[in-house]
Amino acid sequence: MNTKNIIIIGMPGSGKTTFGKALAQRLHKTFIDADDFIVDQEGKTIKELFAVSEDCFRDAETRSSQALAARENIVVACGGGVIKRPVNIDIFKKTGTIIFIDRSPDDIVTDVDVSTRPLLKDGRQKIYDLYQERIEAYRMAADVIVSNNRAIEDVLEDMKNLIGNYFKSLENGAE
Fold first, then answer.
1. 30 labelled as ligand-binding?
2. Is 139 annotated as a binding residue?
3. Is residue 73 left, alpha or beta, with left meaning phi > 0 and alpha meaning psi from -120 to 50?
4. In a domain, 29, yes or no
5. Is 15 annotated as ligand-binding?
6. 131 assigned to some structural domain
7. Which H or E run contains 25?
8. CATH number at residue 98
9. What pTM was computed for the model?
10. Is residue 175 part of a domain?
11. Using one digit for the tens of pLDDT, what is the confidence trace for 23-48?
12. Residue 113 pLDDT
């Protein structure tokens, strides 16, 4: 578990960055926001990449997934649509454990500023539509599923316990 990466997926506004930073600190790993990494790697903002096309952004996201998966001992908060290309999940599973932070659309719309999210510029209904479109892919990709429906500290503790149990089950299965 020391060098294995933790990859966090979920809807925009689900808490990926918040929990990723806290989890990285507790596990003594480096935290990386995948969107920030894409901007650094590509030399363009997310908005600029999307202005070309969503495919342009998704291509950049796949290149970044490959670069991040080549690292060790990191916690990565992925963009909400990383699951749109199954190859990204395949890439991350080679060196990481995928955690899906599941947060209800009702909770997301109460505190996310949709105007700052490129795919959510069409308003709050888009959150509900994306959730329905993506929920099964998130669940299928996840090694561990954590519900973000309580206080941050409680969810973080659940996360740590579920990760620990997941790694113990892997060790027991290898014997």
1. no
2. no
3. left
4. yes
5. yes
6. yes
7. helix 16-27
8. 3.40.50.300
9. 0.90
10. no
11. 999 889 999 999 999 999 999 999 99
12. 66
